[in-house]
C-alpha cells in the first residue's frame, strides 16, 4: 500500500480540539487552555494542555497531540503527536483511535516501536506509583502497538487489571484467554501472580487486603 505523504495527514484531520467533559464538569485549567487556543494563543494552550496531559487528562492529551501534529504553538512533531494520541487512546478518548492510527501510518516502523517502548516504561511507572488503570494500558499496548506482541504478557497484565475491576480489563482477559493454549494461559496466570506480588509490595498494598 502506498504511504501517505506527510502533509496529507494534517489535511485529513478534520474537526478541532475536543472540549473534554461537559462545561460544568471540565476544570478551569482545561477551559482556560481551550479558550487560549480559540483566541489564537496556541502557545499558552500548549502549556495548559501539556500540564493537564501529564496529569492524565485524556482530552488534554488528545488536544496536545493535535497541537503537535499541526505545529501550533510549538514545532510540528509527529512522534510526540503519536505518543500523546496513544495516551489519549488508552484513556478511552474516542477521537484518539482514528488520530493515532492515522499518525502511525506515516511513521517509520522503528519510530512506532520506540513510542511503544516509551509507553511501556511510562505505564509501568504509573503502575509502580499505584495507578491500577495503567495495568490495562500495558496490555493494550502489548497487543496493539508492540512490534513483537507477547500475548502471554498481555494476558498477565489484563488478568492483573481485572483483579482490580479496571474497566474493560475482564473482557480483554477473557478474549485473550480464548486465543491461547492451556499452557500459555497458565503461564500468564503465573506471571500475573508475580505482578500482583510486586503491586502489593508497593503503593497498591492497601488494595490487596493486607
UniProtKB/TrEMBL annotation:
Signal peptide bounds: 1-24
Gene3D superfamilies given in the database record: Tetratricopeptide repeat domain (1.25.40.10)
UniProtKB keywords: Signal
Source domain of life: Bacteria
InterPro entries for this protein: TPR-like_helical_dom_sf
Keyword Signal: yes
Official protein name in the record: Sel1 repeat-containing protein
Lineage: Bacteria, Pseudomonadati, Pseudomonadota, Alphaproteobacteria, Rhodobacterales
Amino acid at each position: 500500500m502506498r504511504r501517505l505523504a506527510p502533509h496529507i495527514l494534517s489535511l485529513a484531520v478534520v474537526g478541532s480540539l475536543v472540549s473534554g467533559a461537559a462545561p460544568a464538569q471540565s476544570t478551569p485549567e482545561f477551559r482556560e487552555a481551550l479558550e487560549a487556543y480559540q483566541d489564537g494563543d496556541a502557545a499558552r494552550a500548549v502549556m495548559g494542555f501539556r500540564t493537564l496531559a501529564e496529569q492524565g487528562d485524556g482530552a488534554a492529551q488528545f488536544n496536545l497531540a493535535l497541537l503537535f501534529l499541526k505545529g501550533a504553538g510549538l514545532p510540528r512533531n509527529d512522534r510526540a503527536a503519536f505518543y500523546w494520541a496513544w495516551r489519549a487512546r488508552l484513556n478511552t478518548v474516542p477521537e484518539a483511535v482514528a488520530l493515532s492510527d492515522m499518525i502511525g501510518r506515516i511513521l517509520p516502523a522503528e519510530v512506532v516501536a520506540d513510542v511503544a517502548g516509551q509507553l511501556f516504561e511510562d505505564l509501568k511507572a504509573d503502575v509502580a506509583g499505584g495507578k491500577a488503570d495503567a495495568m490495562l494500558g500495558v496490555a493494550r499496548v502489548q497487543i496493539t502497538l508492540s512490534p513483537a506482541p507477547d500475548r502471554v504478557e498481555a494476558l498477565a497484565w489484563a488478568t492483573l487489571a481485572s483483579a482490580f475491576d479496571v474497566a474493560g480489563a475482564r473482557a480483554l482477559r477473557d478474549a485473550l484467554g480464548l486465543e491461547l493454549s492451556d499452557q500459555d494461559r497458565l503461564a500468564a496466570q503465573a506471571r500475573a501472580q508475580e505482578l500482583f506480588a510486586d503491586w502489593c509490595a508497593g503503593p497498591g498494598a492497601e488494595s490487596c487486603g493486607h
